[in-house]
Amino acid sequence: MARPEKVATVAEIRDRIEESDATVLTEYRGLTVSQLANLRAALRPAGTDLKIYKNTLARRAANEAGVEDLVPMLQGPTAIAFIKGDAVLAAKALRDFAKTAESFVVKGGMLGSRFISAAEVSELAEVAPREELLARIAGAFQGPLVKAAGLFQAIPRNLAYGVKALIEQRVANGEALPEEAPAEASAPEETSPEAVEVEAAPETAATEAAPETAEAVAEEPSAVEPEATPEESAPAAE
User: Fold this and answer.
1) What pLDDT was estimated at residue 2?
2) What would the DSSP string read from start to end of 39-94?
3) How many domains would you assign to the chain?
4) 87 and 159 inside one domain
5) Confidence of residue 72 (pLDDT cuts 50, 70, 90)
6) What is the mean pLDDT of residues 8-14?
7) Which domain holds residue 17?
């Protein structure tokens, strides 16, 4: 079973390969510590980090990252340049350093997902930097634009000169220029008002008064008969 330290190192190398814009393998045989420090400092402005790993771990990481073309080059003292930036500047820095250290060798690498040989890395170093290429492109466009601007400005000026010369030629030939005709004022049309008949219907309100009749109700008085008194009894004869 692999030790956790080795597993972590393989994962680190794999992630660096996958996240880099380009990867270049070099052989640092015979270089001193100070020379390696100078190389790292020269690569830093190009966004490049130079790292040294064990080849066995680097080969395993290359296989996991799907860049098997790097595996045969992972032999001997190998330093890997992980480029996150301008690959042209990094290639120039490697080329310039190789001129000062004869034992330093560029093996090859990956540019994106494409394998590049040592010769192609050298060709990459000959390419103009990105800023210079952009300046050249801008200069190539600037010339035609300036000419076009001058042409557009000359069109109305030349047209005015041509019209003026034509008028002067006609006057010199005795031709009278036409006078401007006065503008005729158009009278507005009169419109007769339309008669609108409005029929007004008078409203008649008929109010009928209903006479009120009062019936007199006569009340007949009721006769009350007096109650009869009992007859007085005669005294009995003795």
Assistant:
1) 66
2) HHHHHGGGTEEEEE--HHHHHHHHHHHT-GGGGGG--SSEEEEEE-S-HHHHHHHH
3) 2
4) no
5) very high
6) 96
7) 4-127
